[in-house]
Amino acid sequence: MSAKDPHLERWAIEHQQEIQARSEHQAYAIGPKGSGAMPGAGGVQFDHEDNQRGKRSLVFEARPVLLGRVEIRAELTTQAPDQVRGHRKTAYITATPQALRDLARQLLETADAADRKKPRPTAVD
Predict the structure, then answer these.
(1) Within a domain: residue 36?
(2) CA–CA separation, 74 vs 48, rounded Å?
(3) Phi, psi (deg, nearest 5) at residue 78
(4) Strand, helix or coil at 33?
(5) 119 φ, ψ to 5°?
(6) Cα–Cα distances in Å, from 28 out to 41, 61, 89?
(7) pLDDT tens for residues 62-94?
(8) What's the pLDDT score for residue 1?
(9) 60 domain residue, yes or no
């Protein structure tokens, strides 16, 4: 969608309000307990909740390990609105530093594209 559609933007805002969507995130450093943060190790946690799909949380952590590799831990937790307990899945993957740089570059491009799609105030005559 290259041209802005005011009807589509209005629908998206109304839909977000209707489902009472709430999103937050936090970035943090990680390290051994009692030792403080490990250089180059950290993570980010994304939380989203609405009244249609319930709660969802994604944790993405990365830390340098032996032989110049990076260990990535991804954890997804979901909980439907009508459920008492959530479901959690965790995966550990090792990658090269270049793979993380490529991911970071792609994430920055995506964030820039999302910023360009933000609704802007219109001039009032």
Answers:
(1) yes
(2) 16
(3) -130, 150
(4) coil
(5) -65, 135
(6) 9, 9, 21
(7) 999 989 999 999 999 999 988 889 999 999 999
(8) 44
(9) yes
**Nearest partner of 71 among 105, 43, 46, judged by Cα:** 43
Continuous H helices in 4-121? 6-18, 97-116
> In this structure, which long-range contacts are made by residues 87-94, counting pairs with CB atoms below 8 Å and at least 24 apart in sequence?
94/65, 94/69, 94/70
Its domain, for residue 103, covers 21-116
User: Which pLDDT tens digit goes with each residue over 32-41?
Assistant: 888 888 888 9
Predicted local distance difference test score (pLDDT) of residue 32: 83
Spatial neighbors of 125 by CB under 8 A, at least 6 apart, are none
Start-to-end Cα distance in the chain: 27
Report the chain's mean pLDDT, rounded to a whole number: 87
In whole angstroms, give the CA distance from residue 95 to residue 13. Answer: 38
Give domain status of residue 125, yes or no. Answer: no
Q: Is 26 a domain residue?
A: yes
Number of domains comprising the chain: 1
Q: How far apart are CA 63 and CA 92, in angstroms?
A: 11
